[in-house]
Amino acid sequence: MKQKNGFSGQIGFVFAAAGSAVGVGNLWRFPYLAAKDGGGLFLIIYLVLVLTVGFTLLTTDIAIGRKTGKSAIYAYEAMRKKWKFLGVLTFLVPILIMTYYAVIGGWILKYITIYLLGSGEQAVDSNCFSNFISAPSSVWYSIAFMLLTSFIVYNGVEKGIERVSKFIMPVLLLMVVGIAVFSLTLKTTLEDGTVRTGLQGLAVYLTPDLSGITLERFLQIALDAMSQLFFSLSVSMGIMITYGSYVKKDVDLNKSVSQIELMDTGVAFLAGVMIIPAVFVFSGLEGMSAGPGLMFVSLPKVFFCMGFAGRMIGILFFTLAAFAALTSCISVLESITANCMELFHSERKKTTGILSVVYLIVTAVIALGYSVFYVEVKLPNGSTGQLLDIMDYISNSFLMPFIALLSSIFIGWVMKPAWIAEEMELNGGKFRRKKLYNVMIRYIMPVVMTILFLQSTGLLSQIIK
């Protein structure tokens, strides 16, 4: 069944796709990894991977979507009936991600209210975040975020997703740039008279740290960068296939892919400029090791040190994070909706309505996984997780690398790269990175994705040992 609606043009598609790619991970995970993995060294490796692996995965998904005009399940079936199972696997990823993305959005909404209703001092308490998520009342914030996502998807592609993305993405970019510039102007004087400045923090962020570098360390940094890139671009989860199916044939896909790469990487880079100098000024190098707690634990302390300006920055930052979470959450629900519309031959409003009820219930269960439904499970990668972590592990660490591996084999050796190139060259367009794509999809991607899959599942360390 051909999709009856779609994006109005290239700008609408690029903003929607970039909105999907630019998620919460760009705002806290990227800066944390950059600080942990040698600053500029991580940035260089990440940029190289964006222009090779990221380009290959993004091009593949979007071209498949537009050429078949279908969402993941039927797209793969239309290409080769025996490969429909790959479409089903791909469809499972957004189904699992949707169980917890609105929960994270709810956490961000809570922090917006903290800064709107007070000075932000409440957020400085190290136990603020853990106390909040372990309280059953936290579920209402996640439900509110899920309802907002459902409302936008309910209104369709052009009137819902595209309209919201065209507003949110420019505002998000302006906010990132504004906060980044402000961070560079910060400075503080320590008790011993030493002055720390935002520009010094920028130098920490940009300068490649090669101290203690070994082959094993370099490979770990590369795998961290690959993991971040992989999940950041919304590839191998059917989202870009679905969005690609909405793109008109006169849109230049080559230009669109480049613009999405640039926007997603630009926001991630600027997030580092926004966060690392500020954390360095008020917390020093020790503050860089906050890890996943950077957004909800370390940054509120930084904002509080800024006084009244910090409250304003706190409101702006968490509003920015909410925008990033919302555009990504929309794309995940849209991917599920599009597949269900094709599977059950149902119309959008009815499908979205049913899915919304299902995910409101599931969101509530996952949000209560830190209180009412608390569990602790040992995961294959060595970590211990609750319900949210389990869903995240299955979708991100297991399924996505596995799907990318199978997809690279399918496109590279069964369909052949020329099948993708034909769509990229439609209407006389020039596939500028055609040779690179051919080498990547056939030879490099299968190897890289096998390594990433083994590393994510904890098998790589066992093999090395």
Automatic annotation (TrEMBL):
Extent of the signal sequence: none
Residues that span the membrane, as ranges: 7-28, 40-64, 85-109, 139-155, 167-186, 225-246, 267-288, 308-333, 354-373, 393-415, 436-455
Annotated keywords: Membrane, Transmembrane, Transmembrane helix, Transport
Main localization, broad class: membrane
InterPro entries: Na/ntran_symport, SNS_sf, YocR/YhdH-like
Compartments, record wording: Membrane
Protein name per the record: Sodium-dependent transporter
Protein's membrane topology: Multi-pass membrane protein
Record organism: Roseburia yibonii
